[in-house]
Design goal:
With 168 residues, the chain is mainly α. It is built from six helices and no strands. Helix 1 runs antiparallel to helix 2. It is globular. The model has no long low-confidence stretch (mean pLDDT 81).
Amino acid sequence: MPAPLVVAVALPSLLVPFAAFLACDLSRKGAHARPLTGVALAINVGLLTGTAELMLEGAADLVSDPRALLTAPYLYVFAITTPLALGQLQIALQRSRLVIIGLVATATAKTYLLLLSTVLYRHPWPEEHRAYIAAGLALLVLTVAAVPHHEHPALRRPRLLTDPHRRP
């Protein structure tokens, strides 16, 4: 895959999570605001992880030629997306539940990897399994869409009104 195409794929994959991360902190605040479950942060993590996996797949084709590997942008994009994905994962895990972050991030990353590697690296789906893959992708999208975006009021974590380290 030529370098401009790698950049054309990687740039939106970096900008979309960045913009979504900034917008995530603009959530409503107030007495009636419901806390978010972290679906948006998990999708950001999934996009960045999927991009990193996509770059590793491209780099795997060049392992036999170290010079081509070092001059191709795959490793450099991987070196940018991986720490960003880990940082966003850490933030997401601090703000939200592991089960939601794990499900949505993994589903997003693998879907992104499957769809873009099919297009970019021309990896065709097996003829006999195309219907299963398409059905699986549809179920994945429905699963992520079914994840609640706001926490139920009964499941909210209790807030401490006083400092737990202060002695009475």
